[in-house]
Design goal:
830 residues, 25 helices, 33% helix
Length: 830
């Protein structure tokens, strides 16, 4: 192998695995029948090498494969290796490493070189489980024979017949192994390896146990390497610091945490670059930016990087869909200082010159944290001598992760704890297999309580339950072609029958004589002497006066105007050393950039809230007002300064526009007679509950539970306060509407004639609301709504104990809350 020699801990780990594998080989050679070989392999032919990223896992695994394959071995054993990588993209990368660094291994092409006659000990085929274990026949290229190569299903048995052992190295891919039915079948039925080496930086005990069960392995030898070993060897950094940004809840949505993290990381990148130059190290550091899965994620990252001052020429990017730049090339190309990537972080590309990583994607799990840490954990070869003699400046002894989402910090800290929990540990040869001679024939037996059997006991691994590609609970559906000519199904889709909610609940839309009721229904006539025509509200046809009113009324004081000029907000910056849980977090204050996009989006939503005003006209009116405010204050309004200021004001103080709209709509809305009078009668089923005070003498069946209970409360009034009541239906020609500031019309639930009330001819409008929508956007507007003729509209909520309470709006918190117990006798005071 070329390059520097292995580190001390690497030599120990390699020696340990070889000792275990060689013991198994010695037993296989003494009793070479299939059952004996299976027993030897099951107990001493499988090892797990767990070590942090950057500690040389691939190197250790390569050394094990190389040493175990040497043709000059005393036992003359021959072995062919199959190396499984997590992703297809890593196959070529791994092959290049083996060709360059391991002269004792011969990298072969699994697609074209499946030829037994030319096989040699130390042959290495690099592939993925997906390549060899595809369920679909048309994708199983490697499982079919060609003109020059055998099918894998024939190649592996022929290798075994020619005296070769089969070795398998699984690089992280064991995590998803048990979920792949075909992979399990291929491993157990076709490959049946004599030796299996698992290599991982993210050990998961549950995954490992499932792998053991699926693979039929009895004893898994764990060889662990601690982070400290790799740090002491100057292969990985002393630590990783994660930086998160915490803002008040009311400002979080207005901040661009992505830009904040990128700008902060770029500043750190510059400091690292300056420090490297200061100590005479000719190395350009690399800043990594990991983005999410959005199609626009890379372009958005580029925009943010350039906004933070990163030259476009220094930015490279890579995605699995658009691999613009080769990951390995960029990792070494020092003309590039930033690499944006959108692939699974577990892809495992090596970037030793990376010190900083910005995570723009959301993930909080520990495995994600371990993978993120691994990208910036390595120490570059040019820095290793100084790291080894402890003369490297503190700034360069750490990696730095900048998080756009502060909640991801928990994933990083738990990752640090998990990595720290791995302590250096070697394994011992399993004593549970023993070579015995039964009837003059050698056999490997599994000992029971340290004893062997005097009769032949062939070993058989525990059967693994059959796996199915689909969960039993997931039903299978057979696709059917849609009808090509209009039939019953097509007719039902294009012309669905009316929903019960679409069918008029009564026949009262007409003011003419009521038609004969349907079978089972009857007409309920309005009580004598009840007024039938009421007053509703509407906005004027022209909105010119309203626009002028809003422009003049909107409250742009010094505080609001200052919000329009603000470009950043003070936030808390929390820096944590993820490997040192006992060390307190470093807390500092910094300015975080506002998100122009989010602010513009919110401002746009505020402008569109007032649907009765054209957004473009409203925008022009507000721009004119704000332009005047700039001039009055002597502040130059250059470029899009006024536009940005208006967006920030609307996003920060959305209520000032609503308040102005409310005042102006109250000033200019018109009170007019409803289009029609209440119907003379309504149609409801026979047996509809009767009401003593409803104008039709019934309790309408379209009332919900709280409304129905309230109707009962009105009917139970014995004080004489309620003279009569009616259901104020929604959007009927006779309904009473209130115009809200957003232009919508609001129809309170009840109209009540209250004795002693002077306003509105004694009619009080009243609304019932459920607590689950108490602070919905429309409810906040309704609770302060007032009718131009009938006055304010009390809003009530029914509590679990059956009492009704009034609802009050708090302008400071912009919230509704229960106020006081409702009493019927107080209706005249509303």
């Amino acid at each position: 192998m070329s390059g520097q020699g292995p580190k001390g801990y690497q030599e120990e780990a390699v020696r340990n695995v070889l000792e275990i594998f060689r013991y198994a080989e010695s037993q296989i050679q003494l009793a070479p029948d299939a059952a004996s070989r299976a027993a030897a392999s099951a107990y001493n032919g499988c090892a797990l090498l767990e070590a942090p990223t950057g500690s040389g896992k691939t190197r250790m695994a390569g050394l094990i494969a190389e040493a175990f394959s040497r043709p000059d071995r005393p036992d003359n054993a021959k072995i062919v290796w199959f190396w499984f990588t997590p992703f297809a993209g890593l196959v070529e990368q791994s092959e290049a490493v083996f060709k360059a660094d391991f002269v004792g291994l011969r990298v072969r092409d699994l697609l074209t070189e499946r030829v037994t006659a030319s096989a040699k000990s130390g042959d290495l085929f690099v592939t993925t489980w997906a390549s060899v274990a595809a369920a679909r026949k048309d994708t199983r290229v490697l499982r079919s024979s060609g003109d020059t190569s055998l099918a894998l299903d024939d190649f592996i048995p022929e290798l075994r017949e020619d005296g070769f052992r089969i070795g398998v190295v699984v690089d992280e891919a064991h995590h998803g192994f048990t979920k792949a039915t075909e992979a399990v079948k291929f491993y157990r039925d076709v490959m049946r390896p004599d030796f299996t080496l698992l290599v991982t930086a993210t050990p998961n005990d549950q995954d490992i146990e499932r792998f053991k069960e699926a693979a039929g392995i009895q004893e898994l030898h764990r060889i662990s390497v601690s982070r400290k070993d790799a740090v002491d060897a100057a292969l990985i950094k002393d630590g990783i610091k994660s930086i998160a940004y915490i803002a008040p809840d009311d400002q979080r949505a207005l901040l661009d945490f992505g830009l904040t993290a990128i700008a902060d990381a770029w500043q750190m990148h510059g400091a690292i670059k300056k420090t490297l130059a200061g100590i005479g190290i000719n190395l350009t550091p690399l800043m990594l930016v990991q983005v999410g899965n959005s199609d626009k994620a890379v372009d958005e990252a580029k925009t943010r990087l350039q906004a933070a001052g990163v030259p476009a020429s220094a930015i490279a990017w890579y995605t699995s869909e658009d691999p613009n730049d080769d990951l390995l090339v960029v990792a070494k190309d020092e003309s590039k200082e930033v690499l944006i990537f959108k692939v699974a972080v577990a892809l495992g590309f090596d970037a030793p010159r990376a010190f900083t990583l910005v995570s723009l994607r959301g993930a909080k799990d520990t495995d994600f944290g371990i993978q993120v840490v691994g990208r910036i954990l390595r120490v570059h070869a040019r820095l290793q001598p100084r790291a080894l003699d402890k003369t490297l400046p503190d700034l360069l002894r750490y990696g730095y992760v900048f998080l756009a989402d502060a909640e991801n910090q928990t994933g990083l800290t738990s990752a640090g704890e998990k990595i720290n929990s791995i302590q250096t540990e070697l394994s011992k040869v399993s004593p549970y297999t023993m070579v015995v001679s039964v009837a003059g024939k050698n056999e490997v037996q599994v000992t029971q309580n340290g004893q062997t059997s005097l009769v032949s006991v062939p070993y058989a691994p525990a059967p693994f339950p059959p796996l199915t590609a689909q969960s039993p609970s997931a039903p299978t559906f057979t696709a059917q072609a849609a009808p090509t000519t209009p039939g019953l199904l097509t007719s039902l889709i294009l012309n669905p029958p009316p929903s019960p909610l679409d069918v008029p609940s009564n026949g009262s839309q007409k003011t003419s004589a009521a038609p004969s009721p349907l079978s089972g229904n009857r007409n309920y006539a309005i009580r004598a002497g009840i007024p039938r025509l009421y007053k509703t509200e509407q906005l004027p046809l022209s909105t010119d006066d309203l626009l002028r009113c809003v422009k003049a009324t909107i409250g742009i004081d010094d505080k609001v105007f200052g919000a329009g000029l603000r470009e950043s907000v003070k936030v808390t910056k929390k820096s944590v050393d993820i490997f040192d849980a006992d060390k307190d977090a470093e807390i500092t204050a910094m300015q975080a950039r506002l998100s122009d996009y989010e602010i513009a989006r919110r401002a746009n939503g505020v402008l569109f809230d007032a649907e009765y005003l054209h957004p473009k006209q409203l925008h022009e009116a507000l721009m004119e007002r704000l332009q005047a405010e700039f001039e009055h204050r002597g502040i130059p309004a250059e470029g899009d300064a006024v536009e940005k200021a208006l967006n920030r004001i609307m996003a920060t103080y959305p209520n000032i526009l609503r308040k102005a709209a409310r005042q102006c709509s109250a000033k200019y809305k018109e009170v007019v007679d409803a289009d029609q009078s209440l119907p003379e009668s309504v149609e409801w089923p026979v047996g509809t509950p009767r009401s003593s005070l409803n104008i039709y003498g019934i309790v309408p069946q379209d009332l919900n539970e709280p409304e129905r209970k309230f109707a009962g409360l009105l009917d139970a009034d014995t004080s004489g306060t309620v003279e009569y009541w009616f259901r104020n239906e929604t959007r009927k020609p006779w309904s009473i509407a209130i115009v809200l500031p957003n232009g919508y019309r609001y129809f309170p639930d009840f109209g009540i004639k209250v004795k002693g009330r002077t306003k509105g001819d004694g009619i009080l409008l009243l609304e019932i609301k459920g607590d689950h929508i108490l602070n919905g956007a429309d409810t906040l507007e309704k609770v302060v709504a007032s009718h131009g003729f009938y006055g304010s509209v009390p809003m009530l909520m029914r509590e679990p104990d059956g009492r009704y309470v009034t609802i009050k709006y708090d302008e400071k918190t912009d919230k509704n809350f229960p106020d006081q117990i409702f009493r019927i006798e107080n209706l005249a005071g509303f």
